[in-house]
Write a structure and sequence with these properties.
2 domains; binds S-adenosylmethionine; four-stranded mixed beta sheet; Rossmann fold; alpha/beta; about 325 residues; 9 helices; eight-stranded mixed beta sheet; 14 strands
Length: about 325
């Protein structure tokens, strides 16, 4: 008789200290320049919008990474022998199926751990994958991967994956701290597969974040609605423009919300009245682009040993495979 799939979901976001959440948002709004944490894009609507962005013709990163993974998944599984896939920032896990299929071909597929800040999408993905892959044990974790990594369940021969340019959303010091914390939470011999967007033509990059359908703009403004539910802030999305530009010095795309008029926004929960000037911007996302040497140096500083590098023929996207020794 065939083995049955199973689903377990742990939710850790409720453990967050509300005072710390308020302080994080307040400090960002008062910083110079003003900024907000990227994770607040992702409620259920934000995750859906991101899925739609991934299907846009101008948004090349998802297609490129999908094709790259398809070509290299068997090699990754042969090198790692993994029977457990832990995916940090798993989102809709569309590309994950390529890796799960490769594990299934090797008859090694046992566990999948989707880890994301968006509860709705973790629950959906867990249900879908348990149905699609017979015998798969899915253990979803809803949490902040910068704070709750110790809740990754103990498991088998693990391959931790971070796809979709998620690492690029972190500043260099946070990216290194994040990878170091993964190194601490994994066992000797475990592997990490890290997806990175590579430095390329600026027009192509900016086009990917300024689609004519307005989906990226809606995604950017969704953060204002999330902040309403998190701290009761009454932002008017129509009072902001979406801005996405390449920062040459930092080698990254920066997304901002630009106030279209002077605004006074009281936020009682933060004990703050926000005064925005006409044209003033709030930084909502960075999307850093890397080179292979930068990625390998980052992995090495975090304690991993790089073991393989894969890239598409246009050098738009890279996948670094590294091991904990
Ligand atoms: C750029 S998307 C990538 C999604 C998916 N891996 C892909 O390749 O399409 C980033 C994902 O990370 C999640 N995320 C962002 N910040 C997070 C955090 N601090 N903790 C956990 N998940 C986070 C988001 O909800 C989103 O699903």
């Amino acid at each position: 008789m065939s083995e049955r799939s199973s689903v377990t979901i742990d939710v850790h976001l409720n453990n967050q200290d509300p005072a710390a959440v308020r302080e994080e948002i307040r400090a960002g709004l008062l910083a110079t320049p003003r900024r907000l944490p990227t994770k607040y894009f992702y409620d259920d609507r934000g995750s859906e919008l991101f899925e739609q962005i991934c299907e846009l013709p101008t948004y090349y990163p998802t297609r490129t990474e999908h094709a790259l993974l398809t070509g290299v998944a068997d090699d990754v599984m042969a090198r790692t022998g993994a029977d457990e896939l832990v995916e940090l920032g798993s989102g809709a896990a569309t590309k994950t199926r390529v890796l799960l299929d490769a594990m299934a071909r090797k008859r090694q597929l046992k566990f999948y751990v989707p880890f994301d800040v968006s509860e709705g999408i973790v629950r959906r993905v867990a249900r879908e994958l348990a149905e699609e892959y017979e015998g798969l044990q899915v253990h979803g974790v809803v949490g902040d991967f910068l704070a709750h990594l110790e809740h990754i369940p103990q498991g088998g021969r693990r391959l931790v994956v971070i796809l979709g340019g998620t690492i690029g959303n972190l500043r260099p010091e946070s990216a290194e701290a994040f990878l170091s914390s993964i190194e601490r939470e994994t066992a000797q011999g475990d592997f990490l597969l890290l997806g990175v967007q590579l430095i390329t033509n600026v027009e192509r990059l900016e086009a990917a974040y300024n689609d004519s359908a307005g989906l990226t703009a809606a995604f950017n403004k969704n953060m204002l609605l999330v902040l309403k539910s998190v701290v009761g802030a009454e932002f008017d999305p129509d009072a902001f423009d979406h801005v996405a530009r390449f920062n040459h010095e930092e080698q990254r795309i920066e997304m901002r919300l630009r106030s279209v008029r002077p605004q006074v926004i009281p936020i009682p929960e933060l004990a703050l009245t926000l005064h925005l000037k006409d044209g003033e911007e709030i930084l909502t996302e960075i999307s850093a682009k890397y080179t292979r040497p930068q990625v390998e140096a980052l992995l090495t500083r975090a304690g991993f040993t790089p073991v393989a590098w894969y890239a598409d023929h246009e050098h738009l996207h890279g996948l670094a495979l590294a091991q904990k020794h």
